[in-house]
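fyi for ur records
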Amino acid sequence: MAKRVVLAYSGGLDTSVAVRWMIENYGVEVITVACNLGQEGDWEGLQAKAFAAGAVEAVVVDCREEFARDFLAPALKANALYEGRYPLVSALSRPVIVRHLVAAARYHGAEAVAHGCTGKGNDQVRFEVATRALAPDLEILAPVRNWGMTREMSIEYAEAHHIPVLATKEKLYSIDDNLWGRAIECGEMEDPWARPPEGVWSMTTVRASEAREVTVGFEHGVPVSIDDERMPLHELVVELNDVVGAYGWGRLDMVENRRVGIKSRETYEAPGALALIEAHKDLESITLERDTMHEKQRLEGRFADLVYDGMWYSPLKEALDAFVDSTQRFVTGEVRLRLEPGRCYVVGRRSPHSLYDYGLATYDAADTFNHADSEGFVKLWGLGIQTWAATQSAASPSSPSTTATPAPGE
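which gave:
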């Protein structure tokens, strides 16, 4: 058994109890690592809470810029949406946390890392697979998965050991938030028929009623400005969360397929993430060549699956990153979003590298398309089908009948 453990620490009930529980049951020294990924929090208070629980060291790392640059930007360039909807709010944060867990373990001479995940969720997979990819020699401890305590028992344990936690037996929701959005689960929402109560929403409470437009600037697939004001990506995401969320747009209510084999009802708020993905996809529509765009769309779901399944640090993910990056060379330009209560949609796009040619696309007098060229192209395109129809179609059991069905009464 390890003598020193680095714990991924959120300051919530499970990780706070885990500090004391590992000390008592494993006889280890515990170092906590808390990563500021844009979530709300009292970071000095978080350190004090970790020390109160028994930690020998409490590290807080400001990861916001790193998180946006190294994790959100690649996901955005890939238009990563798990099952076509979920922008991977929690899944994207786990590999950056593991990066700092491993770094802290090396710095402090720890033999193990630990997390506060249960045995039912996806995060145990993400933490452990990422750790094995970056540091296969480190032991991984999962006290919450193994201690057998209910939520009520954990609260009683915290009270008995004077561990300061905000959780109560009446507080039903589990919330995980960062720059990219907010995940809310548990409580009455575990019934997929029940409507999420209005009180669970925070980022998307309606605060604006007058329609407006916002222009997002991109360079090589990465957002760099809002309404011509340049800003770092982590600040831009926060700004767009506020602007778009004020219109009550950016909520998701879905039943998703977890990696562990169960279906789970999940609700999310991600106004900035979803708006940026919509804008980015639209800019690609005028800057990517047809076959490249279609192949990229085919691979985007695979990219999202890998991230969701905890395979951020994998050879396939690295290969997909290389492909996606190669497609973003000319994804530079601006996209104009219109915001209305409950709506966010694209109303304009432009790029200095646009493949949209007005002369080729228009039907007016400025038309430069040679219509006569189409005759030979269409004949050659359909030549194979024409040959099949002339020689084999009649003998094919699946071939459509050329005999019209009589109308009733005929």
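The longest helix spans residues 290-308. thats all i got for now
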